[in-house]
Amino acid sequence: xKLLKNCFLFNxxxxxxxxxxxxxxxxISIEDEIDISGVSNIQIHDxxxxxxxxxxxxNHVHITGGGGEGGFGTRIDPITADDIYKSGVxxxxxxxxxxxxxxxxxDLFAKAKTLNKKNITTYILTGSYRVPVKTLxxxxxxxxxxxxxxxxxxxxxxxxxxxxxxxxxxxxxIITDSARGGLLANKAxxxxxxxxxxxxxxxxxxxxxxxxxxxxxxxxxxxxNRSKYLLREGIKYIKEGGxxxxxxxxxxxxxxxxxxxxxxxxxxxxxxxxxxFSSDGQGSLPRFxxxxxxLKMGVxxxxxxxxxxxxxxxxxxxxxxxxxxxxxxNPSAIYKxxxxxxxKAGSDPDFVVLNRDNYDIDFVISGGKYVFKNxxxx
Length: 378
Ligand code: ZN
Prior knowledge:
The protein is built from ten helices and 18 strands. The chain is globular, with a radius of gyration of 20 Å. By secondary structure, it is an alpha/beta fold. It has two domains: 2-53 and 342-377, Urease, subunit C, domain 1 (Roll), CATH 2.30.40; 56-334, Alpha-Beta Barrel (TIM Barrel), CATH 3.20.20. It binds zinc ion. Zinc ion is lined by residues 97, 155, 194, 223.
């Protein structure tokens, strides 16, 4: 067992000074002061009043590598455990994107299992951009019901030249199959939609939740901060009960911009609990000159979540507990990850320990083990 003394805890609500006792499997107790006199075999670590927050959840990562839109030379490498550790992410949802041809769901499944062995909780979605959806067992429902780590479907592309331009009927089938699989297996059954540049945006999704008995809880459109237009559509959609995901990675590493997108939504009256941030990690980020000439293929980074979180606090005056929501409790609620996104007795022991001066990551504890220590700040 391990005991973290003198934490300044955000669970994500501000809880103040606490001690946290945990094993490798779960958080055992959280008290103002935990007395362990007479108990042997406990490692004690004094957090010296650092901020201790839930491990981050990244709900959109191309764990087996994305890209490939410029030929085989532009395929992006699979992610490494180290990339994940240092970003503060302790829970990952892996998925396939444009390339469902040379990349397979079988490989995605195996990679997720590998990351699990390395103390990173990893789930996956079935399918890729293309419709009809390519699955592991031949059906979306069976994938979700029978494969333990498959919790939904995606990313299904809409409004994009790389999509199959699925009809509303096809969308209904994908969403209802996914939802039904979720019901049977008590999983989220969420469909993650990649939303492209076409003006049509999420028009079909808005239509479906308005006109059918389809729950918006089973739908999460992503890249919704691709343009101001789409952000505004997102506000409309949230008002219909919808959920939206913003992409934090940026080829120019301008995370202030990403925080500004979030700020725009909140200032426009969007419910903070309906919004998540994901990194699109290991996805392709083409870089262009100011004149629009293709420069090179960049790669989505998981640390974009932490960078954007910092910008929300430092540049836009969000409270720490608010800036945590889109990367902790909100994705946990949407994807039904009951033991994730909050720090409470019974939850998984996943913590990010932040420096009080600059919100940098000092430590990451994932699955009860230290997986990252920032030597600069020891
Ligand atoms: Zn995408």
